[in-house]
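Key result, reporting period 2: structure in, sequence out.
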């Protein structure tokens, strides 16, 4: 009977071993959280850059259909007589990922779409503009 107890005692984990494993897991989890902390901001910026380009293309479609550039974002999301809007997304399409309304600058037949960026202020360094967004090259 004692021999069976000694074998059972040796096959179990000690409290120290369990604490070491928990500490290692805690360190790994902390490293993962720190490494992913800036990812939401980068994702918002990429989403915003894509949206700015989509709004610019919707304005060109609007110009083609109506013979004039849109005066505001409301023109782009309003449905035409066929029930189709130049820009999908309804009221939500008017806002960037930070909740700020996109701004349209129209100069003749040229349109620039601007997001105020994370700080919510136009003209600051973090604005995302359709005239400065660079297209990414696809790699094969």
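The corresponding designed sequence is given below.
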């Amino acid at each position: 009977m004692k021999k069976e107890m000694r074998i059972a005692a040796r096959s179990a984990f000690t409290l120290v071993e369990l604490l070491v494993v928990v500490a290692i897991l805690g360190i790994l989890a902390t490293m993962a959280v720190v490494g992913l902390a800036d990812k939401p901001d980068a994702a918002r910026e990429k989403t915003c850059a894509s949206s700015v380009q989509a709004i610019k293309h919707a304005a060109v479609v609007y110009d083609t259909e109506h013979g004039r550039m849109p005066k505001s974002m409301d023109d782009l999301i309003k449905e035409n007589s066929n029930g189709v809007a130049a820009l999908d997304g309804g009221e939500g399409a008017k806002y960037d990922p930070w909740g700020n309304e996109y701004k349209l600058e129209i100069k003749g037949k040229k349109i620039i779409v601007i997001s105020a960026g994370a700080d919510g202020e136009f003209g600051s360094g973090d604005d995302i503009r359709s005239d400065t967004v660079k297209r990414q090259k696809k790699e094969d």
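The helical segments are 2-11, 15-36, 39-66, 73-77. DSSP finds four helices and three strands in the chain. This case is discussed further under Risks and Mitigation.
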